[in-house]
Design a protein that fits this description.
Elements lengths: L5 E4 L24 E4 L4 E3 L4 E5 L2 E4 L4 E7 L1 H7 L1 E3 L4 E4 L13 E6 L5 E3 L4 E9 L22
Antiparallel strand pairs: 1-5, 2-11, 3-10, 4-9, 6-8, 6-11, 7-9
Length: 152
């Protein structure tokens, strides 16, 4: 079977959690987003942030991207936001040499009280999208690593 787009557990750079990796799931058959799960119990104090490593990587076709958003319930009920607003997972992030494509989600607490994330709680959702390339903007640079590796 040819793989088109989807999720796998990372093979290297696994974080040391005492929980199994849950691959992203859709809440309903019409859901656009794939829910990502916390592998750890964490309390985030007001104004602080925490990176949740999912031990999940995503494969997709060239011309596609996985956009990451905080789940509505986490944002509305708990006041947690993704620290970078919207996460962008490029197709060449998959199996990169520095972290095997491990998707990390950094949540920041914007509420006035500490917020706890439970093991297995759905914290973010990813949506696969197609993107367009602009005329005369060409890059032949190959990805050499994980987060922040394209700062050239």
């Amino acid at each position: 079977m040819t793989k088109i787009r989807g999720f796998e557990e990372v093979k290297s750079n696994l974080k040391k959690f005492n929980t199994e990796t849950t691959l992203p799931t859709r809440g309903t058959k019409q859901s656009a987003g794939y829910d990502f799960y916390s592998k750890e119990l964490v309390t985030i104090e007001t104004g602080n942030q925490h990176v949740f490593w999912t031990d999940v990587k995503s494969y997709m076709q060239p011309g596609e991207v996985l956009e990451m958003y905080v789940r509505s319930s986490v944002g509305i009920k708990k006041g947690l936001v993704l620290s970078n607003g919207t996460g962008i997972i490029d197709c060449d992030y998959y199996s990169n040499e520095s972290n095997d494509g491990n998707i990390g989600l950094c949540l920041r607490n914007e509420s006035k009280q500490s917020q706890t994330i439970e093991v297995g709680e759905r914290i973010a959702q990813g949506i696969f999208k197609s993107f367009l390339e602009a005329d005369n903007i060409i890059s032949n640079t190959e990805r050499g690593g994980g987060i922040g590796s394209t700062n050239n």
